[in-house]
User: Fold this.
Amino acid sequence: MIRTKSGTAGNTLYRAITVATLLAASTTPALAADNVILITLDGLRWQEVFRGIDKTLATHEEYSVRGEQLLDQFWHEDPQTRARALMPFLHNTVFTQGSYVGNRDAESCAQVTNPWNFSYPGYSEILTGVVNPAIDSNGKIPNPEKSILEMLAATPAYKDHVGAFASWDVFPSIFNVERSGLDVNALGTTVDPQSPSEVLLTQLAADIPTPWETVRHDAFTHHYAKSFIIDRGPRVTFISYGETDDFAHDGRYDEYVFAAQRADRFIGEIWQLVQSIDGYRDNTVLFVTVDHGRGEQPLETWQHHASKAAVAGPMQALAQYEEGIIGSENIWMAAIGPGVPSTGLLQTGTDCLTSNRIAATLMRLLVEDYRQYNAGMGAPMEEFLQ
Ligand SMILES: [Zn+2]
Assistant:
């Protein structure tokens, strides 16, 4: 048995669940979860999620060195079959047993609320539930807003029971670790290994060159998160995979697609893991989303994302796109677990659901009143609540 700071892993989780059960009993709903796992895939377009691979990009000699492999593995004439081939866990499990939004081919719309369509503002909106106009950069600037992890970790029921794992090295700033005291595991942070597998992971992370200056391979983020869930029994876990965005910025459509496929498998592994652990099984909500979309036309804009305001200001490298990267405000969301209805596709028409409502939705699923934490948060999305 692996020892943790506060005893055995099982005991830690048991205590957390007991406290949560007592709290839940005093407030109501028949269906609610004691645990939430929020997963983000950086800038994975709704187009790939709901239409599968794009043939023009997959056969493009500059964008897809491994194009033949893409076609072999993922091409089907029917878009739905194609999408299912790329992201089988999302389609076969989350979309069928839970609810999802953002397939714009089916009158289902989700968007960011922030005016920029790039990462830090997107993650801050997701995690804090508010859009602060001062957040206009991807720089390592301590976030003036509080994430739901910070708010909840300040309460006895969640103290020492939150975890955050990210491939991008800006997340310690997005979580304002100096103020929040949250232990964020991301590229550049120091890890104190708690088990033999974490010792190996930490050694490999130090010995394998990072693929990008600011983003590590998602495998490290993923396996650290799994290890933490097993050993520490967190009630709120955030996992941010980053490879999709960086391969897209590199202009590698093939690798972007393979990263999406891996992320789908990773999400499936997280779900299988929680269903195998007492206390988590049938007691955990998985919520999956992205921080922004990407372009579609002109063709090369699949690599980019930025609003009209962003290209006129902080994203001047894209200034030739005077209207910004069209469509990069479009996102998607999906959820599964106790308290989430099995509606499948949420048809919104033009009444788009928005990222700033995710934080309060997760609060509600945990039977917490978001207004007691920050009344300025976007309201919970009833569509994701039973
Ligand atoms: Zn991003």
